[in-house]
Amino acid sequence: MTPASFGRLPDGTEVGLFTLNNARGFEVRAIAYGAIILSVRAPDRRGQLDDVVLGCDDLEGYLTRSRYFGAVVGRYGNRIANGRFTLDGRTFQLATNNGPNHLHGGVKGFDKVVWLAQPHALDGHTAVAFSYTSPDGEESYPGTLKARVSYTLTERNELVVDYEATTDKPTLVNLTQHSYFNLAGEGRGDILPHVLSIEADRFTPVDDTSIPTGELAPVAGTPFDFTQPTAIGARIDADHEQLRRGAGYDHNFVLRDGPVPGGLRHAARVVEPASGRTLDVATTEPGVQFYAGTHLGGQIGKHGHPYGPRTGFCLETQHFPDSPNHPHFPSTVLRPGATYRSKTVFTFGVD
């Protein structure tokens, strides 16, 4: 573990930088602002290391140009319709920062705060834990929420993300990790040749503001069928109403049920044919949002690289979007005395 400084906020608050390494040369860097994953350096089939996560070179970029690059988003990752939900008979109105809807925790979500960092070792692996206390009423959410996110790097090139949270009042929690990946290397073209598979027979269709309709629709016979490995670009511009509404892929997939050792289920696999790099995602969450980065464009990223549309993809493990307004969706309510726990493992390899 190598701690350093990544700069200071305008108010003088220092933002720590933490580098995790394993014996195989794999490297992950994270910063305390937004608990952002700054970079992931992974080998290709020739052993060449490249950074496969989109982002910025300096703190100023994350303050002014970020599209949630690498951040933990919350309290509620994804969208809530009209920024409104009812809990125990009381209606709460949140900020509407994404058209008519609430997105990723609001105007100042967890991606825009400095977390308290604590480097440590876990089962012999290097790790860093970030904690943040969100006060009652922050972004109009009820309850004081104490959140903790830990990043652990194993010798198997696994990046393990553990989430925990407690509250003193009933509230909503849906944390996720918003890294944009390009397994060819950040800044090296679009992600359309990447081959994707998702362990999901259903997805949640959306309306024209990207809010789920409530239906759990079959993927069979649609461009959303990734039950077999398929290039991301193979059907992204097909004539399909849901692709038009999402400007491509920006949808939640309903992961298959079934007993999984350790509570984890395999969610997705991505292969980049040219480099041979692979990414496997396993999670305790019931869904994963696959976003193909269509709305990227105009950002200047690391090393001056322009990030155009579809130059990075996200696999955001999560509960479903707008769950508070769909009682048949898995609940995102956290109550006093209970602990929210979630785990996602990103495993990098070579095909």
Rg of Cα set: 19 Å
Amino- and carboxy-terminal Cα gap? 29 Å
Per DSSP E runs of 2 or more residues, the count of β-strands stands at: 29
Physical arrangement of strands within the biggest beta sheet: 11-12-13-14-29-23-22-17-20
| CATH topology type | Beta-galactosidase, Chain A, domain 5
Low-confidence stretches are none
Number of domains: 1
Percent range of helical residues = under 10%
Using the 3D structure, state the CATH architecture: Distorted Sandwich
Large-scale geometry: globular
Structural class: mainly beta
What average pLDDT do the residues reach?
A: 96
Oligomerization category of the chains in this entry? single chain
Largest sheet: 9 strands, antiparallel
- What fraction of the residues are assigned to beta strands by DSSP? 35-45%
The CATH C-level class name: Mainly Beta
Q: Please work out how many helical segments DSSP would assign.
A: 2
Structure report:
- With 351 residues, the chain is mostly beta strands.
- The chain has one domain (2-350): Beta-galactosidase, Chain A, domain 5 (Distorted Sandwich).
- Helix content is 3%, strand content 41%.
- The protein has helices spanning 59-64, 241-246; strands at residues 2-8, 14-21, 27-31, 37-43, 49-51, 72-73, 79-80, 84-87, 90-93, 102-103, 116-122, 125-134, 145-153, 158-167, 171-172, 176-177, 195-198, 200-204, 217-218, 230-231, 250-255, 265-271, 277-283, 287-291, 299-300, 306-307, 314-318, 333-334, 340-350.
- The chain has a nine-stranded antiparallel beta sheet with strand order 11-12-13-14-29-23-22-17-20, with no helix packed on it.
- Strand 3 and strand 4 (37-43) form a beta hairpin.
- It is globular.
- The mean pLDDT is 96.
